[in-house]
Specification:
Distance between the termini: 15 Å
Low-confidence stretches: none
Radius of gyration: 13 Å
Number of helices: 4
Structural class: mainly alpha
Shape: globular
Helix content: 40-55%
Number of domains: 1
Strand order of the largest sheet: 1-2-3
Mean pLDDT: 87
Number of strands: 3
């Protein structure tokens, strides 16, 4: 959990969307990156072990909202703020 909170701090400091941060969030939430053994070469696998594109957490509000275990009462309108708030809400015991 502390890794997610550190990522939240890093995302909060961003000036805009960041694919590297999106990938780091994926790693922290159970995604894995495989460099070989797939017809496309490098591929990401989600926690359900399915090949998938990395969600654009820092640029898409829909993607950021998937970080919440359940829909919160207050939803930030900015994807980066939602990406920052989700791990903090989870750590604080808020949905």
């Amino acid at each position: 959990m502390s890794e997610l909170l550190k990522l939240a701090d890093r995302v909060e400091a961003l000036a805009g969307p960041c694919q590297k941060s999106d990938e780091d969030i994926c790693r922290a939430t159970g995604w894995r990156f495989v460099r070989e053994g797939h017809p496309f070469g490098c591929v990401w696998y989600n926690p359900q072990n399915r090949a998938a594109c990395v969600p654009a957490y820092t640029s898409s509000l829909d993607a950021a909202m998937t970080l919440y275990p359940e829909l919160p009462k207050w939803v930030p309108s900015c994807p980066r703020l939602a990406t920052v708030e989700a791990p903090r809400a989870i750590a604080a015991g808020r949905p």
